[in-house]
Amino acid sequence: MAYSKIFLILFTVLNSIYYLNAGYSGVPQTTADTKAVLRRSLELRCIYDGDGSGEFLEWYRGDDDSSVNNEKSGHYGVKSNDKESNLTIKIFVEADALVKKWYVKTNKAGYERPPECSFDQISLKASPQGMETDRDNEKLDSAHGSVRRMEDESVDFVCHIAPKENVDLSKVVWSYSKDDKTFVNLLDQTTVNDAIVIKDNELRINGVKKTDRGYYRCELNNVHFTVLLRVKDRLAALWPFLGIVGVVVVLVIIILIFEKRQKSNKKNITTDDDDQDQANDPLVRTTTKGSDNDTKKRAIKA
Ligand SMILES: *[C@@H]1O[C@H](CO)[C@@H](O)[C@H](O)[C@H]1NC(C)=O
User: Which residue's C-alpha comes closest to atom 14 of ligand 1?
Assistant: First the structure.
């Protein structure tokens, strides 16, 4: 009895000494200055730098202590090995910003829920999430969108910022690129080109020219959203119409020629038929036969 008690105490002491080496740390260290961007991914990491394995179990979120595994599949991704465990919030949504706590659990005695790997609520930072224009049917919310204008029409771009609360819209920066690679600040261009008007998250181009074609980008908090402006010249817009008119004219001409030909053919055929009809007409033949017979009869009589 005494022996087993001593053994148990010894075991616990040794265990504690062994686990004193256990150390967990979280990345980021605090979520106070980590802000998430809507619809982007965000990663929380827990690193173990002690002996052996960190024995990571599962990530949990929220006040109801539910495993992230219980959430919609694919929204979170967990990757762990002996030394670290990563929780990836793949597409950060508003609901994620409401979660009060994020933490990882381990199977290590005394470190079941390491406080270093417990993260506070993650707030959102305002960022461009889409682009709207002066036309109702033009609402772009994914990358690689484009907007089309005829030459001399004007275009309004309104950069959609979310979340909207406490946003300083004057911090929105507009830039332009011909090829989606090197962008120039459009504010510098407004002095050169007075057709461009910039007001916070709105950009207006009065009377677009073919040279205005290109990529327009709004940026806030190092997040940007880009839209391609295509400019059609007036004549180009006319080409399909002229093409259709051309095809119709050609068709009409072909039909007219064809009809004329058919008419003249018909005339020829009818005249031919008239001749043949006369030749083949049984009445005509009988009469000739009759007259033949008559002459024969006459000859006999004679
Ligand atoms: C965790 O994330 C870091 C940085 O993104 C990466 O280098 C590491 O390989 C990840 N660990 C695992 C286990 O996937």
Answer: 79
| Cβ of residue 82 lying under 6 Å from some atom of ligand 1 | no
Q: Does the residue 261 lie in any domain?
A: no
| Lookup: tokens for 60 | 């949990």
CATH of the domain at 120: 2.60.40.10
At 102 the pLDDT is 96
| Low-confidence spans in the chain with pLDDT less than 70 | 1-4, 6-22, 63, 237, 269-302
Q: Is the CB of 81 under 6 A from ligand 1?
A: yes
Q: Cβ(86) to ligand 1 under 6 A?
A: yes
Judge if the beta carbon of residue 84 lies within 6 A of ligand 1. yes
| pTM summary value | 0.69
pLDDT for 190 equals 76
Residue 208 covered by a domain: yes
**How far, CA to CA in Å, does 239 sit from each of 75, 146, 175, 189, 230?**
48, 22, 33, 33, 17
User: Is residue 187 within a helix (H) or strand (E), and if so which, with residue range?
Assistant: helix 186-189
